[in-house]
Backbone:
């Protein structure tokens, strides 16, 4: 691997030229206004503008106008021939507006109609699955593919926190405003972050705060018990309630703008209220009660299922679990509880239906959790731009035509993504994986934004310094490698929504039967005749019936189920003809050959950009394409061979299958 200094990602100095060449005036008070002032000062120093122009003489005026109607984070841009004015009702709006101007570059200084921008979602959060200690199996960052933690090192908060400030700046510039600093699997020493080690969290919060990012902490539900203070963690026990209240009081004494707790309870071995015969509403409300008077929020995760199931038992369906556990609890959660639901019913596969939980709790604040870290989508060794997938999820209408979209349904809860960042110089390991972090933030601000346009926007900013030679060739090359990369990844991995088929444990690379006889509930049931999971009401697990009527009906029948989800909902013969006109088995062969060809083509496109992209970035991506291609071929050959051997059906085109 090539090594480089910390990469500026989508904020290279050059991207601030527009602001930095102007006569700028910043008006307003407060920490975030000071941040804007410092940004302007740096840009002007670099590019020769002036950051102390007075109101009358400036050509860029940024000001907080109390009483404005932009809301806490919105802003208005007014562009006349003489001057561009950015106004916001609050400092956070000024900060977001500043980065908006950076994003649109010179266009900020051409005359145009007034524009007001407000985030569609108030909460736009990243969850870091970072451990303080290096975990013996999961390493320091669980499902992390970008080196060690940005926050923690050698068993404690890093001494030099400057990189966290730079990170906060990147996050704010794409709209993110909340962050959890530790893994939802809360191990022994991480449990103490809530109590005697909270000063370490406070130090991190101090670096995030100037960029408007509130700090959250993942907590262990059994903390009162595990820390030895009490002999129970029963949520209805008065002593337990008092313990959490005192813990929260101490937290807020140190970090008054603390965001709240994230909780993984009764999930994959984490403790929870079930141990005491209590419900998840009891559990969540316990913590909500402790946080309420400080304005904090509990993010209670809905990822609750039986991870010790018997593969012989066809009646238990992991996909059903979150709905079965949580839908009956609607209306029972406190106002400051947000139920955090993974976007699909399983676990961040390359293709899943949208979780039926999202539309099933109208009286509960629901947040959707996405996975920017590419656990099942190539682990930041493969290019897989996820914005197109996330857009599809956000545009889905759980009640069918005319009903609200997922993006609208989560307005009261927000959007969360598992972070894909570590201490790697490129932040995300694969330099092109930065696009996932950026586009996530932008979609959380505006879930209706066009995914491909966001990828272009990321490229335009990130490659600003490289867009001098032959900008159109560079732009079209970047579009070619990014836009279709999720579709390509889907083609060479698990087919038609069936999911998994990954190597157990680390989840990288193919293993068709890797999870087939395991306890994890992730099966495909392939035999000599067919493949897929029958989740219909009529003959299967009944999962399809968890959707509102239009979708329940669509998914129930093989004839109306969309091709890309067919094997998620139905067990069909290999000769079943898809809507595309191909049989299932021929579709499998064709997509796997195509997927590899598309990676080969993308690798060539990237190679041809060598003269246009800075050498460190170009080399890193080129090296990773070699691995992506090797792995894609492995997927193709294992999957195709497996299905040829199971079905005995030859490829219609006589291509090489082993
Ligand atoms: C943090 C999946 C991952 C786990 C992760 C879990 C979760 O099962 O493989 O690493 O644990 O999801 O979301 O809690």
Residues:
């Amino acid at each position: 691997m090539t090594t480089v200094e910390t990469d500026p990602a989508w904020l290279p100095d050059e991207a601030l030229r527009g602001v930095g060449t102007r006569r700028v005036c910043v008006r307003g008070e407060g920490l975030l206004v000071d941040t804007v002032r410092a940004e302007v000062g740096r840009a002007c120093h670099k590019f020769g503008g002036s950051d102390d122009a007075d109101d009358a003489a400036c050509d860029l005026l940024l000001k907080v106008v109390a009483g404005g109607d932009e809301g806490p984070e919105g802003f208005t841009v007014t562009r006349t021939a003489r001057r561009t004015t950015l106004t916001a009702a609050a400092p956070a709006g000024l900060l977001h507006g500043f980065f908006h101007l950076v994003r649109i570059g010179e266009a900020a200084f051409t005359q145009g109609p007034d524009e007001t921008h407000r985030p569609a979602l108030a909460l736009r959060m990243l969850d870091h699955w970072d451990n303080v200690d290096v975990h013996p199996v999961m390493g320091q960052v669980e499902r992390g593919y970008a080196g060690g933690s940005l926050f923690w090192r050698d068993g404690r908060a890093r001494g030099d926190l400057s990189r966290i400030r730079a990170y906060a700046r990147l996050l704010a510039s794409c709209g993110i405003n909340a962050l959890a600093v530790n893994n939802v699997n809360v191990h022994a020493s991480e449990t103490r972050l809530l109590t005697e080690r909270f000063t370490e969290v406070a130090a991190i919060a101090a670096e995030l705060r100037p960029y408007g990012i509130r700090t959250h902490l993942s907590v262990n539900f059994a903390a009162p018990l595990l820390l030895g203070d009490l002999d129970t963690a029963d949520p209805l026990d008065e002593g337990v309630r008092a313990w959490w209240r005192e813990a929260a009081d101490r937290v807020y004494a140190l970090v008054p703008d603390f965001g709240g707790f994230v909780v993984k309870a009764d999930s994959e071995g984490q403790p929870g209220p079930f141990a005491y015969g209590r419900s998840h509403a009891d559990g969540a409300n316990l913590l909500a009660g402790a946080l309420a008077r400080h304005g904090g929020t509990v993010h209670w995760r809905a990822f609750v299922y039986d991870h010790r199931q018997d593969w012989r038992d066809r009646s238990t369906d992991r996909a059903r679990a979150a709905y079965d556990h949580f839908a009956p609890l609607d209306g029972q959660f406190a106002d400051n509880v947000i139920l955090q639901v993974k976007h699909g019913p399983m676990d961040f596969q390359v293709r899943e239906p949208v979780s039926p939980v999202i539309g099933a709790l109208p009286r509960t604040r629901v947040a959707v959790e996405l996975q920017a870290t590419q656990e099942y989508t190539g682990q930041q060794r493969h290019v897989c731009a996820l914005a197109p997938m996330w857009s599809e999820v956000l545009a889905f209408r759980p009640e069918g035509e005319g009903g609200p979209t997922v993006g609208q349904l989560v307005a009261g809860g927000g959007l969360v993504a598992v972070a894909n960042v570590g201490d790697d110089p490129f932040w995300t390991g694969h330099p092109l994986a930065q696009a996932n972090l950026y586009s996530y933030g932008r979609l959380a601000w505006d879930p209706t934004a066009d995914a491909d346009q966001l990828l272009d926007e990321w490229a335009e900013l990130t490659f600003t310094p490289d867009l001098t030679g032959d900008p159109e060739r560079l732009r079209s090359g970047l579009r070619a490698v990014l836009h279709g990369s999720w579709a390509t990844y889907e083609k060479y991995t698990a087919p038609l929504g069936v999911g998994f088929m990954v190597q157990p444990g680390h989840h990288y690379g193919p293993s068709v039967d890797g999870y087939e006889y395991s306890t994890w509930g992730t099966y495909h049931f392939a035999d000599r005749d067919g493949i897929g999971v029958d989740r219909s009401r009529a003959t299967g697990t009944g999962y399809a019936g968890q959707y509102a009527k239009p979708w329940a009906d669509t998914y129930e029948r093989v004839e109306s189920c969309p091709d890309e989800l067919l094997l998620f909902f139905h067990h069909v013969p290999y000769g079943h003809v898809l809507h595309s006109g191909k049989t299932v088995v021929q579709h499998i062969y064709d997509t796997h050959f195509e997927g590899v060809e598309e990676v080969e083509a993308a690798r060539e496109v990237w190679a041809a950009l060598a003269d246009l992209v800075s050498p460190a970035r170009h080399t890193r991506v080129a090296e990773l394409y070699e691995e992506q291609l090797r792995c894609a071929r492995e997927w193709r050959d294992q999957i195709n061979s497996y299905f040829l051997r199971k079905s005995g059906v030859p490829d219609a085109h006589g291509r090489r299958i082993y």
The chain has three domains: 13-117, 124-462, 489-533+571-647. The mean pLDDT is 97. The first helix runs from residue 17 to 20.
